[in-house]
Amino acid sequence: MCRWLAYSGRSVPLEAVLFQPEHSLIDQSLNARLGHTTTNGDGFGVGWYGRHSELPFRYRCLHPAWSDTNLREAARAVRAPLFVAHVRAATGTPTQETNCHPFRFGRWLFAHNGLIREYPLLRRDLMMSVAPHLFRWIEGSTDSEVMFFLALTFGLERDPQGALEQMAGLIEEVGRRHDVASPLNMTVCVTDGQQIVAARYSSERDSRSLFHSTSFRQLRALYPEDPRIIAAGDDAFLVLSEPLIDVQGVWEEIPEATILVARGGQIQQRCFEPRLPDMNIAQRA
């Protein structure tokens, strides 16, 4: 389907995560091991937070990540303390730049792996649930972008977990009304530059893969001379679709129906429980 990752820690060159590891995200764009598709070549995107701007920067392209020489050059030059990257395998919507992740609104970035089943059937009802003041900012045609704007409608900026749970609950309710079995499958990531929030959930309880790093201190002990690990710092954190290196104990799988919040070196995991939103409140927000 897709592969994505999010990093927080000390500022590091993007290439330290995107290109240099044995099973980097760029390698996963060609050779995904745990995805439903081996190749993820329908575009890519990177969003990052810089020192001199409150708003995130973004680079997206509809070409395969492995063939984009500009991405390789940018990844050498850009350093950031928090970034999100995504390689796309399309699920029925066009290969175009506006359909590439991460999606952006204000300080927020959003990336998704998975799908809304029978999306053309559910699309109108879901899009009509987006708050009117947000609707004009939808640029593309993917189910993922609509998921993001539904979460914004339900208060993502105030309560990320509650907003994502309401987004999931609405999708399941609309699917039920249209007799769509197991309408939602997702791993998602949202960030405002201060925290990374990631959720793994599917209606059928068989979600796409999702992992997080356990300890960069442990990595530093294993690879004491690796400058990338030293530069990242002991509080660095990664959440990602697939591990970047094959080392036992470095990665922990995020359980089904779980949401993770990482901020300032602290990680919390909680149950993810979809629920119906109060549409009257959401539309007034």
Automatic annotation (TrEMBL):
Span of domain Glutamine amidotransferase type-2: 2-265
Keyword Zinc: no
Pfam families: GATase_4
Superkingdom, natural source: Bacteria
PANTHER family listed in its UniProt record: GLUTAMINE AMIDOTRANSFERASE DUG3-RELATED
Cited Gene3D superfamilies: Glutamine Phosphoribosylpyrophosphate, subunit 1, domain 1
Family annotation (SUPFAM superfamilies): N-terminal nucleophile aminohydrolases (Ntn hydrolases)
Keywords linked to the UniProt accession: Glutamine amidotransferase, Transferase
A GO molecular-function annotation: transferase activity
Species lineage: Bacteria, Pseudomonadati, Pseudomonadota, Betaproteobacteria, Burkholderiales
Keyword set includes Transferase: yes
Protein name: Class II glutamine amidotransferase
